[in-house]
Design brief:
Keywords: DNA-binding, Transcription, Transcription regulation. By secondary structure, this protein is α/β, with parallel strands linked by helices. The protein has nine helices and twelve strands.
């Protein structure tokens, strides 16, 4: 049985948009037409690709496996179309971005939009592990992450090096210093991101290597929550140096006695690196980081 191309394309659009309505709008077809194409694919093979809950759709395990395949299929189609058309104008398109911080990503998207106003974007913020996973699962086209990967399926470009610093309330005894040795964290309460965060991973690893045991650990989900918890007196926080915002109530601390340097990377699937929109994003973000650190 020959598989229906229109059915695959409809399935892929819905899986990508996570919505029949959004997929129909993106493909410029009616929602009933799109639904019929997906249902036809399911009926032809006697399978269920989506769980439909009201207006929401969720991929079944089989649907997730098929989405990985269709992502490769339609990525190859996009590359072939770009190659044959010789397009460099980027008049239209949608770029899905994942990042572990919005700061530099927003600047890159703003610059791309200025050059190519016909493009649209979506941005997902998560920890470093989640960001890499989204690219690997085709849920995002490109990513900015502090997590380096040796996976050959992932194309990464180092943008810059940063380092972790600690910060504490100005009234905290440790804030009498501008720099403290790693041993100063023994018995201290800490505020750190959730597991999967490169900030937490590196800091905990350095504490372990030095044989340092903190007291209590408050785990939170975002950088903003780390800052709020530290300001509220729950403990000492850790953050990338470039992300620390001066505040009269908070004191920045350089930590000595261990290597707290961390890289920042742009990443995409290896087979997608030559797609014009993906390539343009990586080039733009490289240029922005280069302007900051000539």
């Amino acid at each position: 049985m020959a598989i229906s191309y229109s059915g695959l394309a409809a399935f892929h659009a819905v899986a990508q948009a996570e919505s029949f309505t959004g997929a129909a709008r993106a493909r410029n077809v009616s929602q009933p037409t799109l639904s019929a194409q997906v249902r036809g694919l399911e009926d032809a093979y006697g399978v269920r690709l989506f769980d439909r809950i009201g207006r929401q759709v969720k991929l079944t395990p089989l649907g997730q496996s098929l989405f990985v395949i269709t992502a490769r299929l339609f990525t190859a189609e996009d590359e072939a179309q770009s190659l044959l058309a010789g397009t460099r104008t980027l008049m239209r398109g949608h770029l899905r971005v994942a990042a572990d911080s919005a700061r530099h990503v927003m600047a890159a998207l703003a610059r791309i939009r200025e050059r190519y106003p016909g493009l649209t974007f979506s941005l997902t913020i998560g920890n470093s592990s989640q960001v890499v996973e989204q690219v690997m699962n085709y849920a995002a086209d490109v990513a900015i992450t502090a997590r380096q990967s040796s996976d050959p399926r992932l194309h990464t470009v180092k943008l810059r090096a940063d380092r972790l610093v600690a910060f504490a309330p100005a009234a905290h005894p440790i804030s009498r210093h501008d720099a403290v040795p790693i041993e100063a964290f023994a018995g201290q309460d800490l505020v750190l991101r959730e597991r999967g965060s490169i900030t937490r991973e590196v800091f905990e690893q350095r504490l372990s290597e030095a044989g340092i045991k903190p007291a209590n650990l408050l785990e939170v989900q975002t950088r903003e929550a780390v800052r709020e918890a530290v300001a509220a007196g729950f403990g000492i926080g850790v953050i990338f140096d470039n992300e620390f915002q001066p505040d009269d109530g908070l004191h920045r601390l350089v930590v000595t006695g261990a290597d707290f340097s961390v890289g920042e990377y742009a990443a995409c699937r290896e087979e997608r690196r030559r797609i014009p929109l993906v390539r343009t994003f990586i080039e733009v973000v490289q240029g922005l980081f280069g302007e900051e650190h000539p």
